[in-house]
Amino acid sequence: MTDAERPPAESSVHLHDPGPMRAMAHPMRLRIIGLLRMEGPATVGMLSAKTGESAGSVSYHMATLAKHGFVEEAPELARDRRERWWRAVHEMTSWNTVDVIDDPVRHAASDALRRTVLESYHRELLAALDAEAALEPEWIAPTDSSDGAAHLTLEEFQELSADLAAVRDKWWARRGEPAEGTRLVRWMTHVFPRNDV
């Protein structure tokens, strides 16, 4: 993705309303927005080929994403009037469950989106496992899937979350153009209190 194709570096959207949350809470829409954010602008045909969805289905999902401001057309990339390119408007989407916990409609939308995101993480991790056979051993060795637990105070729990956020922010700042010797590397972190202990 060139700088002209990339959304502004500070570009993020914080969701408050249930409509955009529900729009994003669909596996294919989440996948489309992820492709546009990681790989840059694309046409419906290109997204159809990458996702295995029909062009009609991708067009429908693009219209929904556009309606809620997640994607926009990129007419400057079109080679003719029939070709329609799309780009992600933001690099990141966030929302705070605490902000919606007391509103049943917004909480249900937030919950649906969180579940869709977690399911997409699961699919992506399994796909990465399947793809390992084609990787060089040195690219497999640093791969990590781990977990842990500790009895923490609320302040320590907050510190742990902040520490992990600092690590994510450090490496997020390194994103940019692919360079020789690099591969796209994904990370996912989850920090949560257990209620069954």
TrEMBL record:
Pfam family, one: HTH_20
Molecular function (Gene Ontology), one example: DNA-binding transcription factor activity
Ranges of compositional bias, category Basic and acidic residues: 1-19
InterPro entries, A to Z: ArsR-like_HTH, HTH_ArsR_DNA-bd_dom, WH-like_DNA-bd_sf, WH_DNA-bd_sf
HTH arsR-type domain segment(s): 19-114
Listed SUPFAM superfamilies: Winged helix' DNA-binding domain
Protein name: Helix-turn-helix domain-containing protein
Residue ranges crossing the lipid bilayer per the database entry: none
Region span, Disordered: 1-22
Organism ancestry: Bacteria, Bacillati, Actinomycetota, Actinomycetes, Micrococcales
